[in-house]
Design goal:
eight-stranded mixed beta sheet; alpha+beta; Major capsid protein gp5 fold; 20 strands; 10 helices; flat
């Protein structure tokens, strides 16, 4: 159980670190203004402090997440439930010692022809929890569970034309041609960890924890990349894979995202570098602002942390209150290391309401097939799930292009 005093201590440390950071950065900016170049020692110190602040921010976020994480109630929390123990015995030993007797009570599906058992509810929930904590897109996007191979929804991107008319004036019919269909299929994702039977037999090894860590790590890394950069062929389609243009929402074709240039190829403009961030924020319609967030890799966040607005105030602020993340121009910042690196023309920063703009679809259920034969003396665990993802609202997500125009 996390004590509130731990959160207060962590936030106090972060606040002091950021005040020191601002002091050093102010000195660096003053040197640039007076001498034309910063002091090398200040630059090196800021680089070290960037790492420290990122670590402290992660500590604060981790403590807050632990305090707010919901707990499962009822039998799912019982570590020694008969069903769970029978399933884990199957994972370790490879044969059924009474699991079939619980089939009608807790097991979702048993497919004897394939030789695999569905993961029991308590273990499957823990894997999903690990993914939620480690995958940024799952925290900010809409996540749906389906029992079919795809989800379909309607989109309405236009509205009937309204016209003023006199009492006896001619009233022509108006068209509404904005109705369309969005289809998000699910794609198979698999992980195949393996271990020797001797290792599984060792009483010191916690088979459950090992299996959860292996599967969650592999699935999270694959999903992280696909939700951001996936091409949609046999995998989810990432939002940075779409064509982008500078045109506004009213004139831009549906299926094309809007971007704002930084003013410099592969970086921020040398003068007023924060201006592009203001421009990007203002391109998002106000109706999407309540749940809007920034997403970027840590390297870009380290650069933005040094920026000030026209009044001399820092545009980035650390999280100092329980339940609130670090903010940029007042909006939460999510660190996503699968965002493209800061290079010429890259979309390394996005801003938007991802709950409206991006949907992740999970096929209900997860399967583990134990294979002790094909790689003896290793035992393979073929773990599969089906997941999809795609942009559903192209007005709700804006991109920052590291380009001159």
């Amino acid at each position: 159980m996390i004590d509130i005093s731990e959160v207060h201590a962590a936030t106090d440390t972060l606040a002091r670190a950021f005040e020191e950071y601002k002091s050093v950065n102010d000195r660096r900016l003053a040197d640039i203004e007076t001498r034309g170049a910063p002091d090398v020692l200040d630059t090196e110190q800021l680089s070290r402090m960037d790492e420290t602040i990122s670590r402290l921010q992660n500590d604060v976020t981790g403590l807050k997440s632990s305090m707010m994480r919901p707990r499962t109630s009822g039998a799912a929390l019982m570590p020694d439930s008969a069903h769970k123990q029978a399933f884990l015995h199957y994972v370790a030993k490879g044969y059924d010692t009474g699991l079939a007797s619980f089939e009608s009570k807790a097991l979702e599906i048993v497919n004897s022809a394939e030789g695999g058992y569905m993961v029991p509810p308590e273990l499957s929930d823990r894997i999903v929890t690990r993914q939620f904590d480690t995958t940024p897109m799952r925290q900010i996007a809409t996540v749906m569970s389906v029992s079919s191979d795809a989800v379909e929804m309607l989109r309405d991107t236009s509205e009937p034309v309204a016209q003023w008319v006199s009492e006896l004036g001619t009233r022509a019919d108006t068209d509404d041609n904005g109705i369309g269909r969005i289809r998000i299929p699910v794609h198979e994702l698999y992980a195949q960890p393996k271990a020797t039977q001797k290792l599984l037999d060792d009483a010191i090894v916690n088979v459950e924890e090992w299996l959860i860590a292996k599967v969650a790590s592999k699935f999270s890394r694959a999903e992280n990349n696909a939700f951001v950069e996936g091409d949609g062929i046999g995998m989810p389609r990432g939002f940075t894979s779409y064509t982008a243009a500078t045109t506004d929402d009213d004139t831009r074709a549906w299926g094309v995202l809007q971007y704002v240039p930084t003013g410099a190829s592969g970086g921020f403009a040398s003068s007023n570098p924060a201006d592009c961030l203001f421009d990007l924020m203002h391109k998002l319609r106000v109706g999407y602002h309540p749940d809007a967030v920034w997403i970027m890799p840590r390297a870009v966040a380290d650069a933005i942390r040094k920026f000030k607005d026209s009044t001399g105030a820092y545009v980035w602020q650390p999280s100092l209150q329980q339940g609130t993340p670090a903010t940029l121009l007042g909006f939460p910042v999510v660190l996503g290391e699968d965002m493209p690196a800061m290079t010429a023309g890259s979309f390394s920063v996005a801003f938007g309401n991802f709950k409206e703009g991006y949907t992740i679809v999970d096929r209900i259920g997860m399967r583990i097939l134990r294979d002790p034969y094909t790689s003896a003396p290793f035992v393979k665990f073929r773990c599969t799930k089906r997941t999809g993802g795609d942009v559903v609202n192209f007005d709700a997500i804006k991109l920052l292009s590291f380009s001159a125009s």
